[in-house]
Structure to design on (514 residues):
């Protein structure tokens, strides 16, 4: 692989000139397949077969004049949309006051994140003279606190991480608190933010072979091995069995490892020229010209640089659909932030690749009834996670589940042997506290079914809820796409991006068996 972060004189957004490895594979653009029939109900517009009936859903630029509202605590979408554009906010709305969904709250989680315990973080010098770079750590803390992240799943590279005592990987400083496990030793930590918000920090490792999340102790001599025994060892240490960079992994091998989850979206796959060209079948370097002006052109909001590159990671979607025919897998989105590539100061006063910016781009939404390390990891093992590209707006009300003899949540398996199964999906609305202008976004949902033979588009709809009987076994998932017309006030000299549809939400899958 080329040292792709060096291609534009160091001015891109992720990776490192001495990165951890290369990924290869084959891919094609996302296809919609064929349309299948089914009885459906909806509150909005749909395309597909069947006659729909109505039901009720169950569930800073110069031209922005109002003050930001995204840091307002409490409540959830309980205010009216603004009369004037909301000034861009480096943070995100507080979602702790949002209604629970079938007894579960949503937590914002960053999964795949590097600290000074990674050899290539902090501009390649994370521990000058053997001492942690405290300024870089302060940037990481700010990056987690400002967007109100609830859970940080670290994934430091073995080179430095294995040299540190386990407790050092928790990144605790004087104001923070350890979270003790059943044995009375720390297994996580509360990172305390200046405004009272707290972030649960859990250690993990990323190598080319594995990415265990939520390690509760060090494990010797396994991080560089991809084998069933190695993944069993990290599970025994309390970790989730995960792999990064799914787009470059061999599916036959992944099927043998006993994984809990895979990355469905990885930032490198959209920004690394080699991966874009070889795995995604996209142009090589031309997209740089679309991205860099977001950071340097007055009038454009740098946090919206995602509009210049955000695309599905098709090989990873294929991996989920293929492996999911015989096993259940949780999905995640990998931020993979190192703060090590683009130190040029953008028009908002931050470096292009700041931890805060990359963390604000997208996150995982874990649903759990309790907020403990054990409950968070249990929810991820169960698959109850979905992905939100929140730089495009904070969604409210999204849901996807199945109902037959009982409710089946995202990420779970269910058999048709127990009788008919109804799939239900609800499109979100835009949180009125989220930065927006006077025009509403366009929102489109797509329900997919993948079998061993094909992917088919069962239905697409533009508002509200749909219901459809599952036509047979398969891997079912929902994508929500947004046409970000509401972001026009923040686009300066590039208003065309307000009319270009982009991914907003990827649901976890429902694994329907015969």
């Amino acid at each position: 692989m080329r040292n792709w972060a060096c291609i534009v004189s160091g001015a891109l957004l992720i990776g490192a000139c001495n990165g951890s490895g290369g990924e290869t594979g084959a891919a094609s653009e996302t296809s919609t397949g064929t349309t299948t029939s089914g009885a459906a109900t909806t509150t909005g517009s749909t395309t597909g077969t069947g006659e729909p009936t109505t039901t009720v859903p169950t569930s800073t630029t110069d031209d922005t004049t109002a003050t930001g509202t995204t840091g307002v605590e409490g409540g959830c979408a309980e205010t009216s949309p603004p009369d004037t554009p909301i000034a861009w906010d480096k943070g995100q709305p507080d979602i702790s006051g949002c209604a629970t969904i079938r007894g579960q709250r949503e937590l914002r989680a960053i999964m795949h994140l590097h600290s000074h315990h990674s050899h290539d973080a902090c501009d390649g010098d994370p521990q000058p003279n053997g001492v942690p770079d405290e300024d870089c750590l302060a940037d990481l803390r700010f990056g987690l606190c400002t967007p109100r992240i609830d859970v940080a799943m670290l994934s430091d590279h073995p080179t430095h991480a294995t040299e540190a005592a386990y407790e050092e990987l928790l990144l605790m400083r004087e104001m923070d608190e350890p979270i003790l496990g059943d044995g009375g030793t720390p297994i996580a930590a509360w990172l305390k933010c200046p405004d009272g918000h707290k972030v649960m920090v859990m250690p993990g490792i990323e190598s080319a072979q594995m990415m265990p999340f939520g390690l509760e102790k060090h494990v010797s001599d396994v991080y560089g091995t991809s084998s069933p025994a190695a993944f069993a060892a990290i599970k025994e240490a309390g970790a989730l069995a995960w792999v990064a960079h799914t787009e470059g992994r061999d599916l036959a091998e992944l099927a043998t490892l006993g994984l809990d989850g895979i990355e469905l979206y990885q930032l490198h796959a959209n920004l690394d020229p080699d991966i874009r060209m070889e795995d995604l079948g996209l142009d090589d370097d031309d997209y740089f010209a679309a991205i860099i002006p977001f950071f340097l052109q007055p009038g454009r909001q740098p946090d919206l640089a995602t509009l210049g590159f955000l695309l599905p990671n098709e090989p990873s979607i294929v991996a989920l659909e293929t492996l999911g025919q015989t096993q259940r897998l949780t999905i995640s989105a990998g931020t993979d932030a190192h703060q090590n590539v683009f130190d040029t100061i953008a028009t908002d006063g931050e470096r292009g690749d700041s931890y805060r910016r990359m963390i604000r781009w997208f996150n995982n939404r874990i649903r759990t009834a309790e907020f403990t390390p054990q409950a968070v990891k249990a929810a991820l093992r169960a698959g109850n996670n979905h992905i939100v590209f929140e730089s495009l707006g904070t969604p409210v009300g999204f849901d996807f589940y199945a109902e037959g003899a009982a409710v089946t949540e995202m990420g779970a398996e269910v058999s048709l042997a127990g009788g008919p199964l109804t799939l239900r999906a609800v499109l979100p609305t835009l949180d009125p506290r989220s930065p927006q202008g006077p025009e509403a976004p366009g929102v489109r949902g797509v329900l997919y079914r993948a079998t061993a033979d094909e992917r088919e588009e069962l239905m697409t709809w533009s508002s509200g809820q749909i219901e459809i009987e599952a036509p047979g076994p398969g891997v079912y998932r929902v994508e929500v796409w947004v046409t970000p017309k509401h972001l026009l006030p923040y686009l300066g000299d590039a208003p065309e991006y307000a009319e270009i549809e982009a991914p907003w939400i990827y649901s976890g899958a429902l694994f329907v068996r015969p």
